[in-house]
Amino acid sequence: MSKVDWNSVKKEVPEWFRDAKFGLFFHWGPYSVPAYQDEWYSRRMYEKGNPCYRHHEETFGSVHDFGYKDFYPMMKGEKFDPGEWAALAVRSGAKYAGPVSEHADNFAMWDSRVNPVNSVNFGPGRDVLGECFEAFRKEGLRTLATFHHQWLWGWFMSSDVEADVYLPGNEKYYGPIVPLEANRANPHCGPDRKFCENWKEKVYEVIDKYDPDVVYFDSRAVIIDEDIRFSIPDYFYNTKGKKDGVITYKWEDYPKGTGVFDIECGRFTEPQPFPWQVDDRLEDHPTTWSMVENPKYRSSGRIIRQLCDIVSKNGNLLLNVGPYADGSFHPDAVRILNEVGEWLALNGEAIYGTTPFTIAAEGRTAAGEGNYDAGKLGQQVDLGRAIDRSGSDPSEGEFRFTVKNDALYVIAMGWPEDGTFHIRALGNSGVYERPVEAVTMPGCPGSLAFTRDAEGLHVTAPDRRPCKSAYVLKING
């Protein structure tokens, strides 16, 4: 029997979050200095036989003499400009944003009294979270604080007994020394009460000091004692009175209704009756969420089509991009985010503030669900790699549907080769019972010619494309 009353922290998801649809966050920390493989470098550099371990020894020296803490002064953040981060988020079309507050590496990105290992005492010497929140709010963005620090339990435990994580006096950097088995996703030896209390105090401190609109938890929060997990929404919603606040969670770490369910790098097949979120990354790499050497990025088209698919099913997309250790972004990342924002500036009426239609999708990639589940996470923990994206990128002949007020929006994922959009679901005997009075396309003057029969709604494409990647048809009926 549960020790707490979860019903007391169940609440409706606020309207602003339902309407926002798109957010941006930033993986930035000492792991950005080696910029090798991914943000799990801080863990893998201590695993004998791992490519990160070999790379670290060859590049920086042994993990006895040069540990993760020795990256702190190298993360100078000399180009970190929160105003530029805010401007980038606005140009991308995001409505909420924030940096990673604390990853699994015990490095807090705020001015913390709870954790002396933070970005003010080390590294850039700046309150990254606080400065970002101030800049974001000036631009009208809602704020996001993400927490991954439940992973700290066992994170640094090394298979190299000479590693600096075991040296006296280094516990403040790496957490308590616990059995090596604790680094599993679901360890048999769960965290002790002291660890759980410290986990809570870090979240409380950010809530008290910075008043985030969204508190995001990465996976594995379930290893924290239930009463302490419960204390977060109770404190955030009830004690602090954050009625328009949002907590997001993964897997079954929190009960339904206490927050927004978050799927990592995945999707639902059908429209959901509840708001949900996908967190994914701009980085086009097997695992990384942070800056790495020679970074590659997904195209703006892929991001736009993913956003359309998620929104059609009542979800939000929270997209990550990782800056360099100096706090600046790769030019390709900036360009792609600007392209996403340009598309949203033209077509945002089909995204922001919409609700799902009777159906979400039409086309070959309409089916197929996925999540970064325990199995995939196990691959990452045990093998250091995982395939984490599901489904293929939709294209011509694919449609997604959204609704706002009296308008139905049909988002075509490609341009028709024969010059006509054929939407089978909107035929005379389809799921749309209203007469079609007019069809328009943002960026194109006037109405588009169309016919409707039992086979579908057939809309003549305009002579020129108003944008790239996806094309919005507004149905007035």
Automatic annotation (TrEMBL):
Recorded family membership: Belongs to the glycosyl hydrolase 29 family.
PANTHER family: ALPHA-L-FUCOSIDASE, ALPHA-L-FUCOSIDASE-RELATED
Top-tier EC class: hydrolase
Biological role: Alpha-L-fucosidase is responsible for hydrolyzing the alpha-1,6-linked fucose joined to the reducing-end N-acetylglucosamine of the carbohydrate moieties of glycoproteins.
SMART domains (alphabetical): Alpha_L_fucos
GO MF entries: alpha-L-fucosidase activity
Pfam families: Alpha_L_fucos, Fucosidase_C
GO biological process: fucose metabolic process; glycoside catabolic process
Keyword Hydrolase: yes
SUPFAM superfamilies linked to this entry: (Trans)glycosidases (SSF51445)
GO cellular component: lysosome
Keywords from the named record: Glycosidase, Hydrolase, Signal
Its EC number(s): 3.2.1.51
Residue ranges of every copy of the Glycoside hydrolase family 29 N-terminal domain listed in the record: 4-349
Domain Alpha-L-fucosidase C-terminal: 398-475
InterPro entries, per database record: FUC_metazoa-typ, Fucosidase_C, GH, Glyco_hydro_29, Glyco_hydro_29_N, Glyco_hydro_b
Official protein name in the record: alpha-L-fucosidase
